[in-house]
Amino acid sequence: MSDLQDLTRKLQKQTDSKIVLLVADGLGGLPIEKGGGTELETAKTPNMDALAKEGTLGLSTPVLPGISPGSGPGHLGLFGYDPLEYQIGRGVLEALGIDFELTPDDVAIRGNFCSIDAEGNISDRRAGRVKSEIASKLCEKLDQIEIPGVEVFVRHVKEYRLVIVFRGDGLGGNVNDTDPQRTGVPPLAPVGADGPSQRTAEICTQFLEQAREILKDDQPANLLTMRGIDMKPNVPPLSEVYGLRAGAIAVYPMYRGLARLVSMDILDAGQTLDDQMARLKAAWDDYDFFFVHFKYTDSTGEDGNFPEKVRRTEELDACIPKIMALNPDCLIVTGDHSTPAKMKSHSWHPVPVLLWSDLARPDACDSFGETQCITGGLGQFPAKYLMGFAMAHAGKLEKFGA
């Protein structure tokens, strides 16, 4: 257990104040051309700029300098958990995100339907992003697979994504991904890094052999790859570490899973940002911390679509007045990592942070963007300290020491 969490346990205090953590996934970016602005700087964001003038800006480092994080470690840092101490596989997050109750004997695996050619090489890693109605029927077929000594569960997640869970004694979660991350080559063989994990790898091999036979006539999804193989770790709940009643308003299963991992309540909120804002308003009196997740600044960055990421950033800015109308005591706008459209991937670049509160010390910044954040009053800090800033600015921490 980290010293940071031990300290917040001792200093937390109950108040009526409200904190909103608005996470624009992959928010940070890069200029397409030298001298230009990033996506955030190019976007017209009058509402966030107004908050920047009254609040404090900074940059957070999700894991360590130079390390490009996945969404799991990126969010755990934002929630105040050291991502190096709490390492979680994608399979666990996907399972939790679809409300699958994992037991201590479960190994959870993120599956991707893929296309393989006659030689057994992967021709499309996502099977043409096969539609959910097709993929869900394929999952029903795979859910009939039987392997001696374990229970097998197969559940559809979204589009080409699925979850496989093996339940049995003596399993381990330290198994490599079978996705080679490129086409024109066959899937990788599962290999365990220790005895229990090698047993899991053997079960994975049996599952994939049966899946290959079951899916052989299905196009384009005629096989699957396995990723993020892991077992659920013991993560202390947010209510214990920070004394918060926390509600999560997220659309995508993985981010719901991340919230469930730290024991937030999952507040169903439809599919749109307007739906999420309506849910926030309806639940306002029931919680003192809200995690609101917006996916599309990340997906547009991964697509390399600079103008669309700009547009999505402007869409996010338009929801700010709805949040401010609820009179939060502390509002933080940030991302879990940077996803520059220029790179079409997650990157190591520090992430812009905007913190607004009546207790914020204004700095000289007058707009929300990476260049201004470099000079902001929060400075550059590890993301795991962000919750401390939020708690302090909401008046939820006692003084430390005499």
Descriptive labels:
Alkaline Phosphatase, subunit A, alpha/beta, eight-stranded mixed beta sheet, 15 helices, 402 residues, 13 strands, globular, single chain
Structure description:
The chain has helices at about 5-10, 40, 45-55, 70-80, 90-95, 130-140, 195-215, 240, 255-260, 275-285, 295-300, 305-315, 320-325, 370-375, 385-395; strands spanning about 20-25, 55-60, 105-115, 120-125, 150-160, 160-165, 225-230, 245-250, 265, 290-295, 330-335, 350-355, 380. Helix 5 (about 90-95) crosses helix 9 (about 255-260) and helix 11 runs antiparallel to helix 12 (about 305-315). The protein is about 35% helix and about 20% strand. The mean pLDDT is about 95. The protein has 2 domains: about 5-85 and about 235-395, Alkaline Phosphatase, subunit A; about 95-230, no CATH class.
State mean pLDDT (0 to 100 scale).
95
**Helix-strand pattern, N to C?**
HEHHEHHEEHEEHEHEHEHEHHHEEHEH
Q: Kindly report the CATH topology of the largest domain.
A: Alkaline Phosphatase, subunit A
What is the CATH class designation of the largest domain? Alpha Beta
Structural class: alpha/beta
